[in-house]
């Protein structure tokens, strides 16, 4: 039996739990959250899924009630407490594999501090930007010419620019090839709006990214938007349009049907892969940090400029 924990039993954490119930691996699972309501929601959702193999599920309000040896931990909290949770976890337990939700942290200094801790404790860690596991992007990667620039455009209506940009950056880098990039927020509206998740911030407008290989990414989120919400990818004279919500993608107008999986349909696959091979298709922590840090720094500088502050962090989740 493998010892697994999910820390954070909210909307996303409870979906991870549902996913674990479909894993082939036999597991003892500990779900941790300070909120009794969240634990109850997780339990209700867990009971909606029939496990394929033996799963013993325990619910707790404290990391200190976890076993001292854990094979895999998924940290599905918001970004505000995540760094302190990882520190507390690794102080209490020996952890072999770790999966962190994005947005990783609010403070730039946390990235290197956690990297050093993971190295010290010999923990292999990935960041859950799951589109790398989606069938559509597997197929798209096969038709992308890696020797030509990849241009990706994604506009929509109030879709959570700060919260979701790193997902788009991650899949752009997956298709284009890992590379440093610049961040341009000159076309972002000079106002801070409240995120749908209390205590976090959002932005509106257009963000632009350019990689060291000439790849480009443009992300736009607007209050009033009536255009296409499909993700447009241009490469080597070809145009690909991805309509995730419709389970479709088009290659030069040719229609392809594909399944867009929910997190509950991915976590079991992810856990089995990590536990049997020691690897998975998610971005390793060191790679994802290269996507998070330049974006977070740009947003911190932007917010400080329009608010006249000198903060070293920004609450993105």
Structure overview:
The chain has 317 residues and is an alpha/beta fold. The chain folds into two domains: 2-130 and 266-284, Rossmann fold (3-Layer(aba) Sandwich); 135-259, Dihydrodipicolinate Reductase, domain 2 (2-Layer Sandwich), CATH 3.30.360.10. The chain contains eight helices and 17 strands. The protein has helices spanning 11-21, 36-46, 79-92, 108-121, 135-143, 161-176, 267-277, 285-307, and strands at residues 2-7, 27-32, 55-60, 69-75, 94-100, 124-127, 151-157, 181-188, 193-194, 201-202, 205-211, 216-222, 231-235, 238-243, 248-251, 254-257, 283-284. The strands form three sheets. The chain has an eight-stranded mixed β-sheet, with helices on one face. Helix 3 (79-92) links the parallel strand 4 (69-75) and strand 5 (94-100). Helix 1 (11-21) packs across helix 7 and helix 3 runs parallel beside helix 4 (108-121). The radius of gyration is 20 Å and the shape is globular. The chain starts with a strand and ends in a 10-residue tail after the last helix.
């Amino acid at each position: 039996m493998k010892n697994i924990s999910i820390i954070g039993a909210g909307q996303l954490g409870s979906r991870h739990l549902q996913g674990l119930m479909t894993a082939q691996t036999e597991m003892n699972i500990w779900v941790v959250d300070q909120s009794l309501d969240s634990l109850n929601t997780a339990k209700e959702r867990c009971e909606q899924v029939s496990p394929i193999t033996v799963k013993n599920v325990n619910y707790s309000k404290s990391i200190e009630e976890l076993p001292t040896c854990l094979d895999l931990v998924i940290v599905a909290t918001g970004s505000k407490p995540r760094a302190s949770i990882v520190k507390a976890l690794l102080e209490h337990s020996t952890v072999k594999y770790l999966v962190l939700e994005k947005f990783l942290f609010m403070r730039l200094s946390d990235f290197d501090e956690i990297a050093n801790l993971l190295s010290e404790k010999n923990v292999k860690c990935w960041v859950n930007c799951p589109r790398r596991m989606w069938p559509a992007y597997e197929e798209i990667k096969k038709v992308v010419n890696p020797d030509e620039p990849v241009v990706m455009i994604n506009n929509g209506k109030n879709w959570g620019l700060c919260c979701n940009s790193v997902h788009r950056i991650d899949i752009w880098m997956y298709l284009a090839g890992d590379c440093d990039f610049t961040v341009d927020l000159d076309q972002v509206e000079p106002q801070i709006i409240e995120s749908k998740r209390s205590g976090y911030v959002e932005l509106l407008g257009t963000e632009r990214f350019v990689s060291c290989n000439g790849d480009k990414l443009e992300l736009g989120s607007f209050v009033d938007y009536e255009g296409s919400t499909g993700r447009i990818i241009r490469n080597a004279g070809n145009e690909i349009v991805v309509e995730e919500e419709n389970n479709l993608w088009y290659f030069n107008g040719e229609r392809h049907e594909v399944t867009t999986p929910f997190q509950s349909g991915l976590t079991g696959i992810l856990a089995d892969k990590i536990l049997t091979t020691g690897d998975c298709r998610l971005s390793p922590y060191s790679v994802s940090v290269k996507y998070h840090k330049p974006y977070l720094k740009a947003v911190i500088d932007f917010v400080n400029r329009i608010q006249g502050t000198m903060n070293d962090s920004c609450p993105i989740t």
